[in-house]
Backbone:
Protein backbone atom coordinates (compact mmCIF):
# COMPACT_ATOMS: atom_id res chain seq x y z
CA UNK A 1 0.00 0.00 0.00
CA UNK A 2 1.24 3.50 -0.87
CA UNK A 3 1.57 6.10 1.87
CA UNK A 4 0.61 9.61 0.77
CA UNK A 5 1.49 12.58 2.97
CA UNK A 6 -0.57 15.68 2.35
CA UNK A 7 -1.58 18.90 4.11
CA UNK A 8 -5.07 20.32 4.79
CA UNK A 9 -7.54 19.40 2.05
CA UNK A 10 -9.09 22.87 2.22
CA UNK A 11 -5.86 24.63 1.28
CA UNK A 12 -3.28 22.27 -0.22
CA UNK A 13 -3.62 22.37 -3.98
CA UNK A 14 -0.41 20.40 -4.58
CA UNK A 15 -1.62 17.64 -2.25
CA UNK A 16 -4.93 17.43 -4.10
CA UNK A 17 -3.41 16.37 -7.41
CA UNK A 18 -1.78 13.00 -6.58
CA UNK A 19 -4.53 12.22 -4.04
CA UNK A 20 -7.14 12.55 -6.80
CA UNK A 21 -5.12 10.30 -9.08
CA UNK A 22 -4.74 7.61 -6.40
CA UNK A 23 -8.42 7.83 -5.52
CA UNK A 24 -9.80 8.08 -9.06
CA UNK A 25 -7.86 5.02 -10.20
CA UNK A 26 -8.61 3.02 -7.04
CA UNK A 27 -4.95 2.57 -6.16
CA UNK A 28 -4.30 1.25 -2.66
CA UNK A 29 -3.08 4.09 -0.45
CA UNK A 30 -3.20 5.42 3.03
CA UNK A 31 -3.48 9.17 3.46
CA UNK A 32 -1.51 10.88 6.19
CA UNK A 33 -2.43 14.47 6.88
CA UNK A 34 0.20 16.80 8.29
CA UNK A 35 -1.82 19.93 9.01
CA UNK A 36 -0.42 23.39 8.37
CA UNK A 37 0.16 25.43 11.54
CA UNK A 38 -2.16 28.33 12.40
CA UNK A 39 0.75 30.78 12.09
CA UNK A 40 3.68 30.39 9.71
CA UNK A 41 6.81 28.79 11.18
CA UNK A 42 5.07 27.59 14.32
CA UNK A 43 4.03 24.12 15.45
CA UNK A 44 5.58 20.91 14.19
CA UNK A 45 4.49 20.96 10.51
CA UNK A 46 7.96 21.64 9.14
CA UNK A 47 9.79 19.16 11.33
CA UNK A 48 7.16 16.47 10.69
CA UNK A 49 7.51 16.91 6.93
CA UNK A 50 11.30 17.14 7.10
CA UNK A 51 11.33 13.82 8.93
CA UNK A 52 10.14 12.15 5.71
CA UNK A 53 11.22 14.61 3.00
CA UNK A 54 14.35 16.80 3.19
CA UNK A 55 12.73 19.25 0.78
CA UNK A 56 10.21 20.09 3.53
CA UNK A 57 7.06 20.07 1.38
CA UNK A 58 4.04 17.91 0.74
CA UNK A 59 2.79 15.94 -1.10
CA UNK A 60 5.11 13.01 -0.45
CA UNK A 61 4.53 9.47 -1.65
CA UNK A 62 6.22 6.52 0.02
CA UNK A 63 6.35 3.23 -1.82
CA UNK A 64 8.09 1.04 0.74
CA UNK A 65 11.58 2.58 1.02
CA UNK A 66 11.19 4.80 -2.04
CA UNK A 67 10.27 8.45 -1.35
CA UNK A 68 8.86 10.77 -4.01
CA UNK A 69 8.38 14.46 -3.23
CA UNK A 70 6.88 16.25 -6.19
CA UNK A 71 3.28 16.05 -7.39
CA UNK A 72 4.12 15.57 -11.07
CA UNK A 73 6.91 13.07 -10.37
CA UNK A 74 4.53 11.15 -8.08
CA UNK A 75 1.89 10.96 -10.82
CA UNK A 76 4.48 9.90 -13.41
CA UNK A 77 5.67 7.16 -11.05
CA UNK A 78 2.12 5.93 -10.46
CA UNK A 79 1.51 5.87 -14.21
CA UNK A 80 4.66 3.81 -14.68
CA UNK A 81 3.70 1.40 -11.91
CA UNK A 82 0.19 0.86 -13.31
CA UNK A 83 0.57 0.87 -17.11
CA UNK A 84 -2.73 -1.00 -17.48
CA UNK A 85 -4.75 1.86 -15.95
CA UNK A 86 -4.26 4.79 -18.38
CA UNK A 87 -3.38 7.40 -15.76
CA UNK A 88 -2.16 9.24 -18.84
CA UNK A 89 -4.49 8.93 -21.87
CA UNK A 90 -4.07 5.87 -24.05
CA UNK A 91 -4.12 7.81 -27.30
CA UNK A 92 -0.61 9.02 -28.13
CA UNK A 93 -1.68 12.52 -29.21
CA UNK A 94 -3.94 13.03 -26.19
CA UNK A 95 -1.15 11.68 -23.97
CA UNK A 96 1.33 14.20 -25.37
CA UNK A 97 -1.22 16.98 -24.87
CA UNK A 98 -2.02 15.81 -21.33
CA UNK A 99 1.69 15.93 -20.46
CA UNK A 100 2.04 19.43 -21.93
CA UNK A 101 -0.92 20.89 -20.07
CA UNK A 102 0.00 19.20 -16.77
CA UNK A 103 3.55 20.60 -17.14
CA UNK A 104 2.13 24.03 -18.00
CA UNK A 105 0.12 23.99 -14.78
CA UNK A 106 3.09 22.67 -12.79
CA UNK A 107 5.30 25.59 -13.76
CA UNK A 108 2.89 28.40 -14.63
CA UNK A 109 -0.16 30.44 -13.74
CA UNK A 110 1.64 32.25 -10.93
CA UNK A 111 -0.86 35.13 -10.73
CA UNK A 112 -3.82 32.82 -10.28
CA UNK A 113 -1.86 30.83 -7.75
CA UNK A 114 -0.62 33.81 -5.75
CA UNK A 115 -3.76 35.91 -5.80
CA UNK A 116 -6.36 33.16 -5.55
CA UNK A 117 -5.00 30.57 -3.14
CA UNK A 118 -7.08 27.41 -2.85
CA UNK A 119 -9.66 27.75 -0.08
CA UNK A 120 -12.50 25.35 -0.77
CA UNK A 121 -14.82 26.31 2.09
CA UNK A 122 -14.54 30.07 1.54
CA UNK A 123 -16.79 32.30 -0.54
CA UNK A 124 -14.55 35.10 -1.76
CA UNK A 125 -16.63 36.26 -4.71
CA UNK A 126 -16.35 39.94 -3.75
CA UNK A 127 -12.59 39.64 -3.41
CA UNK A 128 -12.52 37.82 -6.73
CA UNK A 129 -14.39 40.67 -8.44
CA UNK A 130 -11.84 43.20 -7.21
CA UNK A 131 -8.87 40.99 -8.10
CA UNK A 132 -10.33 40.49 -11.57
CA UNK A 133 -10.63 44.23 -12.15
CA UNK A 134 -7.21 45.14 -10.79
CA UNK A 135 -5.00 42.38 -12.23
CA UNK A 136 -4.59 41.97 -15.98
CA UNK A 137 -2.09 39.12 -15.39
CA UNK A 138 -4.78 37.20 -13.48
CA UNK A 139 -7.16 37.68 -16.41
CA UNK A 140 -4.41 36.41 -18.74
CA UNK A 141 -3.86 33.27 -16.64
CA UNK A 142 -7.59 32.54 -16.61
CA UNK A 143 -7.90 33.17 -20.35
CA UNK A 144 -5.11 30.67 -21.05
CA UNK A 145 -6.73 28.06 -18.77
CA UNK A 146 -10.07 28.58 -20.50
CA UNK A 147 -8.36 28.13 -23.86
CA UNK A 148 -6.82 24.82 -22.69
CA UNK A 149 -10.10 23.57 -21.27
CA UNK A 150 -12.01 24.56 -24.43
CA UNK A 151 -9.78 22.27 -26.47
CA UNK A 152 -11.02 19.13 -24.71
CA UNK A 153 -12.21 16.49 -27.21
CA UNK A 154 -15.84 16.53 -26.01
CA UNK A 155 -17.70 19.43 -24.42
CA UNK A 156 -19.16 17.14 -21.74
CA UNK A 157 -15.92 15.24 -21.10
CA UNK A 158 -12.50 15.54 -19.47
CA UNK A 159 -9.49 17.44 -20.79
CA UNK A 160 -7.96 14.66 -22.87
CA UNK A 161 -10.81 12.13 -23.10
CA UNK A 162 -11.22 10.01 -19.96
CA UNK A 163 -10.23 11.41 -16.54
CA UNK A 164 -6.43 11.53 -16.39
CA UNK A 165 -3.53 13.14 -14.55
CA UNK A 166 -4.16 16.27 -16.64
CA UNK A 167 -7.58 16.74 -14.99
CA UNK A 168 -6.10 16.17 -11.54
CA UNK A 169 -3.61 18.97 -12.23
CA UNK A 170 -6.40 21.43 -13.05
CA UNK A 171 -8.73 20.30 -10.24
CA UNK A 172 -7.61 23.00 -7.78
CA UNK A 173 -8.38 25.61 -10.46
CA UNK A 174 -11.97 24.36 -10.55
CA UNK A 175 -12.29 25.07 -6.83
CA UNK A 176 -10.54 28.46 -7.18
CA UNK A 177 -12.93 29.57 -9.91
CA UNK A 178 -15.77 28.69 -7.53
CA UNK A 179 -14.29 30.28 -4.40
CA UNK A 180 -13.47 33.57 -6.16
CA UNK A 181 -16.50 33.54 -8.48
CA UNK A 182 -14.37 34.41 -11.49
CA UNK A 183 -16.40 35.32 -14.60
CA UNK A 184 -15.82 32.32 -16.88
CA UNK A 185 -17.48 31.06 -20.05
CA UNK A 186 -20.31 28.53 -20.40
CA UNK A 187 -17.82 25.98 -21.74
CA UNK A 188 -15.61 26.45 -18.67
CA UNK A 189 -18.61 26.09 -16.36
CA UNK A 190 -19.50 22.85 -18.14
CA UNK A 191 -16.02 21.42 -17.56
CA UNK A 192 -16.22 22.49 -13.91
CA UNK A 193 -19.52 20.60 -13.59
CA UNK A 194 -17.95 17.50 -15.16
CA UNK A 195 -15.13 17.65 -12.63
CA UNK A 196 -17.46 18.33 -9.70
CA UNK A 197 -19.40 15.19 -10.55
CA UNK A 198 -16.32 12.97 -10.38
CA UNK A 199 -16.51 10.84 -7.19
CA UNK A 200 -12.88 11.46 -6.25
CA UNK A 201 -13.35 15.22 -6.55
CA UNK A 202 -16.56 15.02 -4.49
CA UNK A 203 -14.79 13.07 -1.77
CA UNK A 204 -11.90 15.55 -1.54
CA UNK A 205 -14.29 18.51 -1.33
CA UNK A 206 -16.47 16.79 1.28
CA UNK A 207 -13.38 16.06 3.39
CA UNK A 208 -12.16 19.65 2.98
CA UNK A 209 -15.50 21.00 4.20
CA UNK A 210 -15.31 18.80 7.29
CA UNK A 211 -11.91 20.14 8.31
CA UNK A 212 -11.78 22.76 11.04
CA UNK A 213 -8.13 23.79 10.68
CA UNK A 214 -7.72 27.54 10.20
CA UNK A 215 -4.41 28.76 8.78
CA UNK A 216 -3.95 32.49 9.20
CA UNK A 217 -1.23 32.96 6.59
CA UNK A 218 -3.43 31.28 3.94
CA UNK A 219 -6.40 33.49 4.80
CA UNK A 220 -5.26 36.87 3.57
CA UNK A 221 -8.79 37.91 2.60
CA UNK A 222 -10.84 37.05 5.68
CA UNK A 223 -10.78 36.95 9.46
CA UNK A 224 -11.75 33.92 11.51
CA UNK A 225 -15.34 34.20 12.79
CA UNK A 226 -15.55 33.48 16.52
N1 LIG B 1 6.39 21.55 -6.69
C1 LIG B 1 5.90 20.92 -5.49
C2 LIG B 1 5.22 21.97 -4.65
C3 LIG B 1 4.87 21.46 -3.25
C4 LIG B 1 4.40 22.57 -2.33
O1 LIG B 1 4.66 23.77 -2.54
N2 LIG B 1 3.71 22.15 -1.25
C5 LIG B 1 3.20 23.06 -0.26
C6 LIG B 1 1.79 22.64 0.17
S1 LIG B 1 0.58 22.89 -1.04
C7 LIG B 1 4.02 22.95 1.01
O2 LIG B 1 4.40 21.87 1.41
N3 LIG B 1 4.26 24.07 1.67
C8 LIG B 1 4.87 24.08 2.94
C9 LIG B 1 6.05 24.96 3.03
O3 LIG B 1 6.49 25.49 2.00
O4 LIG B 1 6.57 25.12 4.16
C10 LIG B 1 4.97 19.78 -5.89
O5 LIG B 1 4.55 19.76 -7.05
O6 LIG B 1 4.70 18.88 -5.11
Residues:
Amino acid sequence: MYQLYIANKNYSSWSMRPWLVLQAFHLPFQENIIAFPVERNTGTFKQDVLAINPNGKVPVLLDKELMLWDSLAICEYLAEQHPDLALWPQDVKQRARARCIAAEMHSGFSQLRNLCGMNIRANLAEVGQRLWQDNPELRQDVARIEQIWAQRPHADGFLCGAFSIADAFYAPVVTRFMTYGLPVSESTLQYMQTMLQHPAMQLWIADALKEDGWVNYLESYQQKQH
About this structure: The chain has a mean pLDDT of 97.
